[in-house]
Specification:
Layout lengths: L1 E2 L4 E6 L2 E7 H14 L2 E10 L5 E12 L3 E3 L5 H7 L2 H21 L6 E5 L2 H5 L3 H12 L6 E6 H5 L2 H13 L3 E7 L6 H6 L4 E4 L1 H4 L6 H16 L3 E4 L5 H9 L4 E2 L10 H12 L2
Parallel strand pairs: 5-7, 7-8, 8-9, 9-10, 10-11, 11-12
Antiparallel strand pairs: 1-2, 2-3, 4-5, 4-12, 5-6
Helix pairs in contact: 3-5
Bound molecules: ligand C2E and calcium ion (3 copies).
The site of one calcium ion has 4 residues, from strand 9.
Amino acid sequence: VKEHGRNNYRFYAPEMTHMAIDRLDMEGNLRRALERGELQVYYQPLVDLGSGGIVGAEALVRWQHPRIGMIQPGEFIPLAEDTGLIIPLGQLVLRQVCADILDWQAAGLPPVKISINLSARQFRQDDLSATIRNVLDETGVEGGRLAFELTESMVMHDVENTLVTLRELKKLGATISLDDFGTGYSSLSYLKRFPIDTLKIDRSFVRDIHEDKDDAAIAHAVIAMAHKLGIKVIAEGVETRDQLRLLSEFSCDEIQGYLFSRPVPVGEFSLMLSKQRSL
Ligand code: C2E
Ligand code: CA
Ligand code: CA
Ligand code: CA
């Protein structure tokens, strides 16, 4: 969202050259969108480099606005975070993911692990794990089918509370991924101090990996170190075969990126899973 004048936010959507909605409108719009079911969960496959198969997906929310068209999360997640709407939004995403997991199970599709992004405000909620447990109990989805993605900036401020929350999430059977690794004030001590299962190497380190020897060295070292600590590594933003080849040489566990697939609607992801079964 670009700041446009005082308190005005301006959207740029591919369907229309431009269209302005002020911030208040935007908040009201988002509130209504939540009620009217305009938010959809897309899935971007996580591909195992050993088997070449889909082993999971990251859930990424989209807003299908009736007039503007598709709005990307970068345009409304910050506002949702500021206004507290991220709490009902997060609930909606979790419920949708659990409903989709049940559908895939009923269709006999191979089990996959779904990664859900948590924002700072959600993470600080006192009843976070209780609300997640409620949804799991209601739907009957096993916690082990879920991973929660957190960023370094969320875990660094309050070590004690972070530890308590992470232990609660792990008690549900879920795993913990450290998102955007390398972009924050990365401290390797987090990896030791917190029960992190998976590390996601940020796209910015993957981008030039095939041209920049330093980036390649960093990626290689991060993967080796994570493995020594018993942590799995996912590379984000993999777009080319050259990147894939190097990551594979470095023994990266899984990749996510446009090379394999963009985030897709649930129907399309189900189709990918069913094709995989018939291989
Ligand atoms: P993120 O968690 O780092 O998600 C990865 C972003 O990288 C996604 O953007 C994805 O579409 C994009 N991406 C994946 N592969 C490639 C690639 O090969 N090349 C390029 N250039 N980009 C790639 P998206 O979907 O626009 O999401 C942006 C951010 O919005 C996410 O960043 C996440 O922080 C936030 N977000 C999305 N959904 C949710 C949600 O349900 N809850 C919360 N709290 N945050 C969300
Ligand atoms: Ca993420
Ligand atoms: Ca990320
Ligand atoms: Ca990122």
